[in-house]
Amino acid sequence: MPNSKEQCEALLPHRRFGRTELSMPVLTCGGMRQQQSWGRSTAETFSMTDVAPDCQANFEAIIARSMELGINHFETARGYGSSELQFGAALKRMIPDRSSYILQTKVAPNSDPAKFRKDLESSLELLVPEEGDFVDLLSFHGVNRAKIVDWITGEGAAQTGEGGLMAIVEEFRAKGKIKHVGFSTHGMTPVILKAVNTGKFDYINMHYHFIGSYTSSGTGSAANANQAVLRAATAQDMGVFIISPTDKGGHLYHPTTKFAKASEPLSPIEFHNLWLLSHDDDEMRVCTMVVGAARPGDLDEHVKGVSKIAQTAEHVPKIVAALDALRVEALGQEFVDTWWKGLPDAYGNIDGEGPPDDVSLNPKGTNFTNLVWLWSLCKAFDMVDYARGRYSFLENNTPAYFKQLKEGRSHDEIVDGWSWTAGCIMSEGMEGGYSAEDLTTILARSPLGAKTVARCLAELHEMCKKDSEFEMPPFAFDLRPDVPYPDRGEGDFKSRVQVLNARFAELFNAPPAAEAEPAAQEAGHPRFAKEGGKKQKTQEGAPTLGSTYATGAVLQPTTRAAFKGAFQTKVEGREAIGAYWEAVKAGGAVKGLLFALVSVEKVKSEGEGNPLRLREVSEYSFEGSDAKGMRTTVWEADGDVKEANRKWTDFKRVEETFN
What we know:
Layout lengths: L4 H7 L2 E3 L6 E3 L1 E4 L22 H17 L3 E3 L7 H12 L7 E6 L5 H15 L7 E7 L4 H8 L10 H11 L3 E7 L4 H8 L6 E4 L20 H9 L3 E4 L14 H7 L4 H10 L10 E5 L7 H7 L5 H20 L1 H6 L29 H14 L2 H23 L4 H6 L19 H8 L6 H15 L28 H15 L5 H10 L22 H5 L1 H4 L2 H6 L1 H4 L7 H13 L11 H8 L6 E2 L20 E2 L23
Helix pairs in contact: 2-3, 4-6, 5-6, 7-8, 10-11, 12-14, 14-15, 14-18, 17-18
């Protein structure tokens, strides 16, 4: 593992990170995929004695691989659960030469300066507790609303006092604990420009992708709205860090066949890396992009792409032309040139201008611009899977919005509570929603006409709504964690099944239910906290539900420790599914065998009146290339846990049943 800055610079291209003058690798190792737990409160952030040895070993292997490749910038956040804790422990031991790497963390702004100070101190204590140690880069995490900019600067109607939260950061900068200050954002273009134009930040973490600007898409004066942000940041000599180029940039680790074919001879990840890095002049300059690695091999495809940087001029313009041709073929030139014009975003901004004087521009908070953008991705690039992920957030916002209206809260009050994911889906016909007349008036501002936009929104809903029966377009390959790298199709299907079945045997060599249930009761497992729970039947030969629930009690100690984070994860509303994924990630388990873990905290918080019920368990068979009949479970929840009511059934490929 290289231990000097010079060695890293020789291995991977580095760029000047704006006015910070840091020599920044063009790839950054992000810290939100490999940590033990997403628990965000102090009580849920484990000490290192509680971190599973295999988790920390993987964490450190990612750091070692990063340095071996020349990636010497590590990025984490207070909001990434145990990530700061694990980075702090690993970096001190593994890389004693502090000058050889760049460390960045992020802390969320707060209208209460005391709360912000406490969070900042906690981050610094975890990462750089020793005298003379420091973070190179401190970001205000999630500058997504105009009011948050005011909290930081102390201007406008801020409650944070003279100098705002920036005054607190400057205290720590004066002590040498922080070198440079920036912000990260998932906000919309007008808000981001407001923050950039304060001139108070040395760098920015932002979304800017070939397919669009994520939540900002449609909220500016151009099709790729955050291009205006990139220009403004470059003009101020700010370092530019691109957030989530592979995930929010279009699920490029699991690309559609259509997008992958147009990206040839490069992979989609390679293309996107080179496209971003082609922004390297005085007008627009990208300095680095993050790789959220969950395993050491996740870095390889990105490094392979960067290694082809000399081929940028040869390949990137041709691929851009091919992808642009797909857009025009599917959507028409008029749509490509005008789709965002005249339509309001979730806050009522039109063409990047706002805030509006009149909420009648968008009285019900529908994120029209973002919805039309998602529809265009489905049509041009077959990105239905990607669009569904985004649509689900807006779909979940919608009933909550109208529920609050019914309870007497005003539109402005409800909208003011949005931050990370803003807006609703189209609500025509919903109680309290748009009237047909109102909707026509809003959509008629588009050059495309009200009927065209309404058709786009209706088609998007059919493709992306919960329980949609729309057939998913084909994927080219899958580079997600738990898929042997680099998988590019069907070639190693049988070996993958063998690997997964071996993991199954290793992790779930549980005793019969008669033995497992007493063991789990003795261990105080939450499943047995509720009396009268009915034992579910399973297909003959499959693990019984009792065995599955008892997993935490009967696994080997090191494996049991790996599940600790999952057992302690809070589950609220749609986060029920998140707890399941946490369990799978922590234990490396086969999908379908850990659904029981989803209910752990939900049963505690909801009590007797609203239990999660396991309705069906069947056919734990992984034989056959199509995995026919691979039905696992359906979680059915009473109350508001809408996101938990989801099926996994008849998957065409086994890898689609694993995270």
